[in-house]
Amino acid sequence: MSTTFTWSARLADAAGAPVAGMALEVQLFDLQANAWTTRSTAKTGADGRAKGSGTIEDDTLPLAPAFRLVESAAIMSVSPAIARAARGGSLVVDFGQVQHLAAVERFAQPRTFATAGLRGETLMVGGVAASETPSTVTRDLAERDTLIANQTRVLAERDAEIANLRDLAVKADLATARAQTAEETVQTLSIRLAQSDKDLVQRDAEIANLRDVVAKADVAVARAQTAEEAAQALSTRLAQRDKDLAERDGLLADRARVIDDQETVIAGLRATVAQQEQAIAAATVRPAVGGKAVGMVDLATTVASQLDDAQTTLKPRGFSLGAIQVTAKAVLQDDGGRLELLGKEDLKTVPPGALSDIRMEFLPGETASAEGGPRVPDVSQLTENAARRVLASVGLTLDASVGPLALNPAVAPGQAMVQSPVAGAVSGRGARVLVIFAADVKKET
Prior knowledge:
- The protein is an alpha+beta fold.
- Helix content is 42%, strand content 23%.
- The protein folds into 3 domains: 100 residues, Sandwich (Protocatechuate 3,4-Dioxygenase, subunit A); 167 residues; 160 residues, 2-Layer Sandwich (Trypsin Inhibitor V, Chain A).
- It has 5 helices and 17 strands.
């Protein structure tokens, strides 16, 4: 594996002007070969800048490699700035600005050697003119010129390196300052970001609390409005109830006075009612006592006449008879058309199942007109509930009684045996129809 690198440099003269067209080499010191090897070459452009790239046959690089910038045979710089790229791991080598020195003119001394005492005469050494003989002084001067030239070149290189190092130091200081400023900025931004996150969390909590408060306030407002409406409705109802109570109090006071007036009349009427009831009993029961039979219609007519007389007597005094029910045990004859009321002694000798329960109900009032009234339907062999529904459908009322099954052996217990008025008769609307149902033998025994 290998490591790539890129390099750059700017070549300028002593006055700082760019030097163009100069061939530059970047050399790397090879530790194995113990020598400098050329890795990249480039020429400076019009702005004095040169750049290139190369590779190093090592990807570990435990130490920074040694680079130097060389122009022909002159070393320009030996201390570049080296950095590793963030992406790819390549090296970036920056030599900065390098000062280019002009070629040094070598000193030559082809002059004639003379001294102050010879007055311009040629010095002869061994018969040979001294100027033609190589002189030790001349060699020394040539060596010194060479040494001075080398030292001058080295000083120029050192000056260039110092200038480059100063530039690098300035750049490093600027980079350090920028890095420090950036770090401080990042820290400040991090602190502000953390504070902003904290503020956002606090704001979110406050918003959530406010939402809960608003929701509770809405519920409270709705409840208050509902309570206010209920209170208004209750106030209206209470006012109406107070008004109704006041009216009822007035009516109660009036009725109390009427009741006080009528209580004095009731005491006197009780005796009259008792007398009328005795008269009714004498008219209905006594004719049948002793084994005499009486017609069903005659019995009902007699009782109704007595009730009508009592109603006539009570009406001028402001009273009216209510519903009156007459219940008796009798023996039915002629298919229920006649009945026989027995005394206590006769009842003891009657065989079981021969007696029938007779119940008559009278409601004194206006007599129902038969004209235009309904016809009595046939309810024979119907149960009590069915007969009640059939009669109610035409505007009639059922008056139910129970009799022995012997009256009509063709029916079952609980079914209608006899009805009065008979089926097909015209009756007033609301009139009662007497129906005798067959008794259940098991219940009688």
